[in-house]
Structure formats: C-alpha cells, structure tokens
C-alpha cells in the first residue's frame, strides 16, 4: 500500500493538486490585493483558473528556426523542478518526503526555473527574447548568492541541512526571524528577484522587451510557464515560512495548520505590497544593489550566526 | 560584443501611438537609433483645403485626441482674426477654461503613462483615477469626454449655469488636494528618482538648436510660455506663474508638469470665479475675407502654430500646422545614443510625444 500513499502524496496532497489550488489562490489574492492598493477592485476568485484554461486552448505558435523540442521541454522541466522541490518542504509540519540535506536539493531545484527562463529566451532567437534572457541571467547572479547565503543561516544555526530538522529546532528555541532578521530581509528580496515580481521584473519589463524571454511562447507552453511561476511562488513562500517562521508549528495539528497558512498569507501580503510600492529598477542598478549591498549584508549575517552558534 | 537590433514600434507596449525606432544594442547599451514617423499621417492639411471653414473646425479637432480643443481654439482664433470678429468675453473665458482643463488632463495622462512604462503601476492607476474628475468636468461642460466640439468660429457653443459652476469649483478643489498628494508620493519615492534623475538630460544649447518648445524647454532653463509672453484670449486678465526648472532631465520634466497642473487648476478656479455674463458667440459669415494669419497658442506640449491663408472663398487656401511634438521627435534619435536600454522607456515617455499631432 506504500505506493498508493506515495501516489496520493505526489498527486493530491501535498503534491500537484494541493499546489495547483494554492497557486490559483495565491495568484488571485495577489492580484486582488495589488488592485485594492491601486484603488481598483481586482479580479474575482475564479479569474486565474479561467486564464489558465483560456491559455490552454489558444493556438501554440513558434517562430521558424527554433528548436521545437527544446521550447516544449523547458516549461515542463521548470514546473517539474518546482513540484519536486515542494515535496521536501513541510506543509503544516509534515512533508511528503524528507531526507538528510534536503535543503540543498530544494535550493538547487528552485534555482533551475531562472536558468531555464534564460534558456527560453536564448532558444527563442528573437531580439526581445535574447535581451530579456540576458537580463534574467544578470539578475540571477545578483539575487541568488544573497538568497542562498540567507537561507544557509538557519541551517548553520540548527546544525542541520534538513528542512524538517530546522523546523523542529525552531520549535525548541526561537523562530529564525527573531535571531536573523537581516537574513529574512535578504531572503525576501531574493524571493522577489526569483519570482520576477515588481520591482525586480526587469527581464519581462513590458515597456522595454514586450514580454522578455517568453515573448514567443503562447498557448499550452505559456500556460505551463505561468503555472510554474505560480507554483514557484507558493513553494518559495512555504520555504520561507518553514525556515524563518518555524513552519507555524504549534503543539497540535489544527492550530499548526491555521498558523502555517496564516504566516504564508502574511508573506504573500508583503510581496504584494512591495509590488505596488516601487518602480521597476534598472538592471545595472539592481546588479549594483546585489553585489554592493546585499552580498556584504549576507556575509555579515553569516558571520554573526557562526559567532553566535559557537557560544 | 555582438550587436542586436531591437525594433521599438510601430506597435509596442511603450508607445501610445505608432512610431518606429530601430535600436542597435551592444549588450545593454544603445549605440544607435533610427527613427521613422508617418504611420498616422492622415493628410489633414490637404483635407482642410477641400472643406469649408465650419467643417474644418470639426476636422482640426481630430488632429490629436489629447489636445483636441487647443487645435480648434488656434484655428478659430486665426479665422476670427481674418474675419474681424471679436469673441464675447464669456466665450473667451469658457474657451480658456476648457484649454486649461485639457492641460490638466493631458499632464495627468502623461504622468500615468510615464509611471507605467517605468513599472510603477500604482502611480498610473492613481493619476488616471484623478484624471477621471477632469474628464467628468469636460463632459459636464461640453457633452464629450475626449472630443468636445466646443469651439465655433466666433466663440463657443457651450455654456454653464451657476449650479454647475459651484459643483465644478468643488470638484477642482478636491482634485487640487489629490494632485498635491500625488506630488508627495513622487517626491519621496526613491525608486522613481533612481529611474528619472540624470536620465535624458538636454542642455539649453541643444534645446535652442532643435527649437524645442513647451515643458521640455522650460525644464532646461528656457523660460518661454506663450500664455505669458504673447497673451491670447484672456490670459492677460488672469494671474499665474510660469514654472521653469534647470536640471533638464526626466525628473525635472515630471515635477514641472505636476507643478503646471497645479497652476492650471488655479487658473480654472480663477476663471470659474470671474466668469462674466453675456453671450458666448457672435455669428460668423461663411466666406472669410482674403488674407493670411499666423496664430500661436500654448498647447499642453508646447507652442502650437497655425498659418492660415484665405482667398475670399469659404474654403481655406492653405492651413499649415506646426505641432510641438514635431520638434521633440527631431531630437529623439540624438537622445537615444549611448544610453542604457532601460532608459529608453523613461526618455521616450518623458518627452511626452503626441505622434498623431506630429504626423497630422
């Protein structure tokens, strides 16, 4: 019966079905909240699902000269990476699968979509896509290093690279954010860069590069890219809740569930607020910010944590 | 590094109207830009020769959607000068009122477009929401939000009563507070500064060389405004200050236009306050005595120039329009050299082009 449970975990909870529902909800909540900040009303609850279904039904064109198999594979691998990463992230205290050192695997898997995004731009061989892809890669180098260092802070403190272990350690001591607030800030900035949200949606800046690397995608492929981005949002938020906010773990299952989703919603609110509040940065400004300010900050944070952990 | 050619336009999310740039990029640096215009050329000057003066008022409103009223104002001023008509005071007041309302709506539209092109959607939504107040005022006055058909040769065809005057005054006062709060946001928002300060600098020398007019010139220390220097209509009866700044970058153009919006709101309140009673138009003859006239007004984008020659019939012999956006277009290829690709959107939006005006 093990394999039935495994299939349930992969496809229903906390696998594809659950993540799909969370992705739809988080996109709706995000769009609705940003709309309210901007003085608009915002879309109804079924809008993201309707968008997804509409895209699935649209014509799937590709320019001549591109490698069709590559273009078809990239969004699928991107989504597969996000879904696999989600398997190791605890939801309300329990994860589908866990093993020693799964934080490293999750971080690796979550960095794949950005690289595949660049590859999508490169394979599309159009001018807009290539410029967007270049920017995506430059942005990747600027936020990924601080993000990884910020997320290794809790691991060093808990003396373990397993996410479930980090969560347990936080229930015994204190939440990560209280000990390393700078790390949490860097992780949030890294998450905004990773998800390519305003103010760091530089690669897909509509006013400059039409749609960036995804300009030539349409129909089913675009639907899967979009869904992968949403699932990456949800996965990233869950990761941050587990690593910095103690996974919302309390003594019993029901309060844990409530707290976990409440904290996830809180992080989503912060993401929506920063989307509405800032203008888009220029790529060289963000690269400068990343290397001149974020990386030294993350080094300081790591030094502080190592010093604290010695005592 | 290899060069990539990126087309901006004719259809592009950055542009409101069709315009074609071909940018040559090396990495993220623009090394060259080629410009093509004419995508919205409708031959309006030629069409005007086949229509009577009365029909031409209708035609010239459609040169541009954003500054439609000031085009008909300038044309009607020219024909009234040729015919020796003198528009009654109330008509002049209402004409100027709509001109200033148009200036406010144009600047708010532009602010929204600039912010959206820089990724700052929130300001776009706020500015266009506040613009709705102005659109409602224009609809109250003339029946149309965008094209008003308010001018006739000899005056205006619209009028307001006292109750409308009161509500308009109240709405304008509310709008004034909203513009102040919008200005506060932009003053304090660091990411907005980072995208606009020091970007697209134009020196006084370049402005004089290219004959650029309007807010772009005033933002580079050239203090010229036809409303004060060559007063037309009733501008000599109103008090207002002309804003001039000296930085010459997109930031100073933004602040200048916001300050001009506040000045225009003051002008509108003055006009509503001192609206004289009386008729709003005098009857005009179909045929205009022969002669030629040059008519200049201060459109939202700068000096609007009309040359009208009549030969005594009821069709104009020649109407020549020089719109302010044409000069701004001329300098754009020069401005788009050796800059960052991301600054292209700030510069092109900061110049506030109206391609329909430029192409006619």
List keywords for this structure.
heterodimer, A: 311 residues, mainly alpha, B: 360 residues, alpha+beta, Cytochrome-c3 Hydrogenase, chain B, 3-stranded antiparallel beta sheet, 14 helices
Q: What does the model show?
A:
The complex is a heterodimer of chains A (311) and B (360). Chain A has helices spanning 2-11, 16-37, 47-56, 68-87, 102-123, 127-158, 163-172, 176-179, 181-195, 206-209, 219-244, 253-277, 283-310. Chain A is an all-alpha fold. Chain A has one domain (18-310). In chain A, α4 packs parallel to α11 (219-244) and α11 (219-244) crosses α12. With 360 residues, chain B is α+β, with helices and mostly antiparallel strands. Chain B has one domain: Cytochrome-c3 Hydrogenase, chain B, CATH 1.10.645. Chain B is 50% helix and 14% strand. Chain B has 14 helices and 9 strands. Chain B has helices spanning 44-48, 53-60, 68-83, 89-117, 121-142, 162-188, 190-196, 204-210, 215-218, 226-229, 250-273, 324-335, 341-350, 355-359; strands at 3-8, 20-26, 29-36, 151-152, 155-156, 291-299, 302-310, 316-322, 339-340. Chains A and B meet through α6, α10 and α13 of A and β1, α4, α5, α7 and α13 of B.
Concise account of the structure shown:
With 311 residues, chain A is mostly helical.
Number of domains of chain A: 1
Structural class of chain A: mainly alpha
Give helix % range of chain A: over 70%
Cα Rg of chain A: 19 Å
- Quick one: CATH superfamily of chain B? Cytochrome-c3 Hydrogenase, chain B
CATH class of chain B: Mainly Alpha
What is the overall silhouette of chain A?
A: globular
- Total number of β-strand segments of chain B? 9
Order of helices and strands of chain A: HHHHHHHHHHHHH
Main beta-sheet annotation of chain A: none
Average pLDDT taken over every residue of chain B: 89
Oligomer: heterodimer
Q: What share of the residues of chain B lie within helices? A: 40-55%
Average per-residue pLDDT of chain A, rounded, comes to 87
How many distinct beta strands of chain A? Answer: 0
Low-pLDDT segments of chain B = none
Which structural class do the helices and strands of chain B define? alpha+beta
**Tally of DSSP helical segments of chain B:** 14
How much strand of chain B? 5-15%
